[in-house]
Amino acid sequence: xxxxxxxxxxxxxxxxxxxxxxxxxxxxxxxxxxxxxxxxxxxxxxxxxxxxxxxxxxxxxxxxxxxxxxxxxxxxxxxxxxxxxxxxxxxxxxxxxxxxxxxxxxxxxxxxxxxxxxxxxxxxxxxxxxxxxxxxxxxxxxxxxxxxxxxxxxxxxxxxxxxxxxxxxxxxxxxxxxxxxxxxxxxxxxxxxxxxxxxxxxxxxxxxxxxxxxxxxxxxxxxxxxxxxxxxxxxxxxxxxxxxxxxxxxxxxxxxxxxxxxxxxxxxxxxxxxxxxxxxxxxxxxxxxxxxxxxxxxxxxxxxxxxxxxxxxxxxxxxxxxxxxxxxxxxxxxxxxxxxxxxxxxx
Length: 347
Ligand SMILES: Cc1ncc(COP(=O)(O)O)c(C=O)c1O
What we know:
By secondary structure, this protein is an alpha/beta fold. About 40% of the residues lie in helices and about 15% in strands. It has 2 domains: about 15-245, Aspartate Aminotransferase, domain 2; about 250-345, Aspartate Aminotransferase, domain 1 (Alpha-Beta Complex).
């Protein structure tokens, strides 16, 4: 099976597994794990922040950041397709007691004008808007990259109104690899930012959340409270360090493959539209005359290829470390078979 469902599906390479054998470990809860400390120091520097904390997942990074930045009853500005709204089981409501103001952006990206309009006036009747979140790259926007200027402009709009700013950088390194802009530059106007090691970077566990010393001290209390504090976490942190050293530059291979597949997919008869492909995610919509997305995904599975159905007519394909050009050819053979023949059209 070639798994194009997500870049989370990568398995650690043999070289990555080998670094575990020699890593130095200790009790992470007591700051005694040198490998984890090393990882946090490196990521804080990479992201241009004072400090960082190692967490089990990106979801926990988002949820802890929201909790630190807000009080119950506050409102948080996000884009409607983002992970925080759609895939964190209502965490902002359940954990932080906050409401979300969902903006309708273009492929996950919104404008400073939308931010200004969304921020409520100071009123005893209204929720207080205290945080704005962005996703770089925007997953359900087809891996779209926020242009640096726009990223800075929405942050300025939020900050002018006294809001905190948070960046979900699950795939920030994809933007870095594509545009050659540093992660610290992208994160400059953001109080907090994190990167995920389990996406294109190919590690099995872990994400690192960065911010000011004070923010990280508060984040650590929540990590402890939620049961995210670890013991000999160097075992997994060592693989994240390996990913930083060896798997960042190669992200451009994933982008090249995605670009190539996106071009081919856009030519299929029964494909209505492919979102612009900028990084490693291809999202495309099927014409009404095509089988449904779920049916196509099931047919592809029978050909040995996995993809994701997101809605009735929308399919997502993600490239990563474990799918190469040959896998792409298999995917295209399947898609050609089911989406390129008038015979497949349903009346
Ligand atoms: C944009 C985005 N944010 C957050 C997450 C959550 O990351 P994790 O799976 O590490 O919890 C994901 C995972 O797919 C994601 O795509």
